[in-house]
Amino acid sequence: MINERKIREPQQKRSIEKKDKILKAGYKLICKNGYYKTTTSEIATEAGVSIGCLYSYFKDKHTIFLDILKKYQAQFDKLRDEFMNKMLLFKSPEECFREFMLILIDIHDKSVDFQREVRTLYYYDPEVAALSDDQRQKIQDAALYSIKLYKEYIDIDDYEAAAIVTSLIINSVVDDVSLYKSSIDRNRILDETVKALCRYLKMKPINHLNKY
């Protein structure tokens, strides 16, 4: 049976490129047709490889999807780490919150159709749910870090709970702005979101913070 074949991890450049072509083809077709309407045969054809070649790298369509999701999240991790490393350079918490939302929106904008498939599978696939929950936790960690960084300018008692509320607000706005069309410019939505976050955190009016 196909699923009993040994899956190999490519070591040579040519093999790595073949596996990458399969992932790119899978991403393209899943975004276009949806996860359930995409087959491994179609992915192999799109990638220009035999079905046997595909199954030498992936057990099934599900593992292809998981690898695509992991690659997507690795890109997010890189951008999040870069953002957190430069957090001290922001002039204010408002600028910090806005920049973080812009980063998330940019990532979502580049993968809107894929994000919709992830949302659909979240409720039916434990592995997709686990990966998505891990990413959500990373956003909460970034929110907690920013709250602690500016703690002398805010008035809250429970930092961890506040980080969850903050990340929920940010995620909700980012998802809405990226996945759905709005009748007004997204910058206006971001402006109001930043104001709402500052009001929620009872943030003191600050024109400039010297955090060096």
From TrEMBL:
PROSITE patterns tied to this protein: HTH_TETR_1, HTH_TETR_2
Keyword Nucleotide-binding applies: no
A Pfam family assignment: TetR_N
Domain (HTH tetR-type) ranges: 16-76
Positions of the DNA-binding region: 39-58
SUPFAM superfamilies: Homeodomain-like
PANTHER family according to UniProt: ACREF/ENVCD OPERON REPRESSOR-RELATED, ACREF_ENVCD OPERON REPRESSOR-RELATED
Protein name according to UniProt: Fatty acid metabolism regulator protein
Organism from which the protein derives: Clostridium coskatii
